[in-house]
Amino acid sequence: MATFKAVVIEKGEGGQRAALTTFDEADLMEGDVTVRVTHSTLNYKDGLALTGQAPVVRRFPMIPGIDFAGVVEQSSHPAWKPGDAVVLNGWGTGETHLGAYAEKARVKGDWLVPLPAALTPQQAMAIGTAGYTAMLSVLALERHGLRPDSGPAVVTGAAGGVGSVAIALLAKAGWHLIASTGRAAEADYLRGLGAAEIIDRAELSKPGKPLAKERWAAGIDAVGSTTLANLLSMTRYGGAVAACGLAGGMDLPTSVAPFILRGIALYGIDSVMAPQALRREAWTRLARDLDHAALAAMTTTIGLDAVIDQGPEILAGRTRGRVVVAIG
User: Fold this and answer.
1) Whole-prediction pTM
2) At residue 1, does pLDDT exceed 60?
């Protein structure tokens, strides 16, 4: 097809505007692999890009979407041939490189990983960057030496994409899970994923002490700011927190006390530029460890024509779990 459907963001004097339109294949950016995209997903960063509420998009026009699953159509890269099923997360797609909300994408072959045999393209995008980031966070906690018998684990932003997958992964591994959420109505949903306790995010969002009562051995935080500071202050001696999001802000109003008096660690989780070996390890573990029934329970599916309207919804915290975008 010389042209295909795509969501395109344009910027003019009045700001940016996103629209579903027709895009010419000749206008795709450079890359050694062309992929027929079958599925994408909606992440918090995608919501920022679609609405323009943060400067995620760095060039215009831009096709947003930081994740896709699809099938290779053309390739001059030695690792890929037509017919290969592939997944992409990050690498600047949807930000500096034309992204995933389109029927086609042209990218660097080094950015792709093979779709695990145990996952369908739909399941891979139900996981998406949110779930892949959750897995990177779990791997960081494991490398620190933490295990379910180390003590409880806490997950913030629990009803969101990262939080939902993190709870499912940790619960299946046997952790006692504490889920922090501002949405009391999602308590049954979170318990269904494996949370043993639900706490109101207000407990963690107010300024606290440099050191507070020790409550958990491990944490996965997608919120940042005061919430992350409180997580650190309540982490048990020798524990660790993986920070992977900033839904609550980029600041971190904490002190050195948790680090030098309790010997805890703070791990920064980057999904965008993670090396190929780590990506493959994460996807291998996701295919093996994530319960498919739990994944289905946290997933809804929309069409490409609905994704623009979903941007404000995810930023407002009105989406639950994972949203798959069915494209082709």
Assistant:
1) 0.93
2) no
